[in-house]
Task: inverse folding
């Protein structure tokens, strides 16, 4: 079992004495994050979001309160309501982000990174989707394995909760975790998680270079560039520029770039192969006097 010092050597925490907010569900990952942050001598405030979905949600909130009491750190419980139906996971995530302080630390591990890469791959993601989270300072455990964090928490004697929905393979992430990743490990005859994590960091460097190269172009607004100029740009550059300018707001959940499919449809508008196309957020993109225009529909 890895010791606190060994785990901390692979964590990306700010300097000792820094004040941090930590999102704690009560599961092993977020509890482990809390223990490590305390060992890293950070000034910790714990935040628990109670969605009131499960009958035991109150027990999770009490577990986090007890955790705060044990280490003499403040705890704030946020009560939210999530409407049933639709994409419940996305709605719950949006509610969490709405109430949590900006930059709150989360217990995402290397395993979460690998799962997210696979989810994005299945959705047809580009460079951003294949390198998620890796440059996010709110996720200090991305070099640490989930099993190591869990073993560390068990050895500490600190109670934690296991969300029973994590075993529900009707949910995409869980099916990837319990079925797809073991098959990939068996097929490749290796642990694929570190491989995917390494790939994400290489891709991150590639997209960072591309963004740096395009930085001056990002200053030009969507309607400022003639489509006859756009068609002369390298396709990779045009896609990055369009993704930058066509992000849509999502209340409580930040902003999101359009999908790869949406970008390809916009490129058809740029080339004149399509008159207009609709985008997420109830928007429509069309050409007017050789310039792109966006309107709400």
Result:
């Amino acid at each position: 079992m890895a010791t606190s010092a060994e785990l901390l050597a692979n964590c990306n925490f700010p300097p000792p004495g820094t004040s941090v907010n930590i999102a704690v569900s009560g599961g092993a990952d977020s509890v482990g994050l809390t223990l490590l942050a305390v060992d890293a001598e950070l000034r910790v405030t714990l935040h628990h979001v109670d969605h009131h979905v499960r009958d035991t949600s109150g027990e999770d909130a009490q577990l986090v309160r007890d955790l705060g009491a044990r280490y003499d750190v403040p705890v704030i419980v946020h009560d939210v309501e999530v409407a049933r139906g639709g994409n419940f996971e996305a709605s719950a995530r949006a509610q969490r982000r709405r109430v949590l302080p900006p930059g709150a630390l989360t217990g995402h591990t290397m395993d979460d990174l690998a799962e997210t890469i696979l989810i994005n791959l299945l959705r047809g993601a580009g460079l951003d989707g294949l390198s998620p989270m890796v440059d996010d300072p709110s996720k200090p455990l991305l070099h640490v394995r989930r099993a190591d964090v869990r073993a560390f928490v068990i050895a500490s004697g600190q109670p934690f909760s296991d969300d029973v929905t994590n075993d529900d393979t009707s949910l995409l992430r869980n099916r990837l975790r319990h079925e797809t990743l073991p098959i990939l490990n068996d097929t490749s005859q290796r642990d694929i998680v570190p491989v995917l994590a390494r790939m994400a960091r290489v891709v991150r460097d590639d997209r960072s270079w591309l963004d740096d190269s395009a930085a001056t172009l990002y200053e030009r607004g969507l309607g400022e560039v003639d489509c006859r100029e756009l068609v002369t740009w390298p396709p990779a550059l045009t896609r990055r520029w369009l993704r930058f300018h066509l992000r849509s707001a999502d209340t409580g959940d930040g902003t999101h770039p359009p999908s790869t499919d949406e970008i390809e449809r916009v490129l058809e508008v740029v080339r004149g192969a399509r008159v207009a196309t609709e985008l997420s957020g109830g928007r429509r993109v069309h050409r007017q006097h050789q310039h792109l225009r966006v309107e709400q529909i």
In short: Strands lie at 19-23, 43-50, 75-79, 248-249, 255-256, 276-279, 283-288, 291-296. The first strand starts at residue 19 and ends at 23.
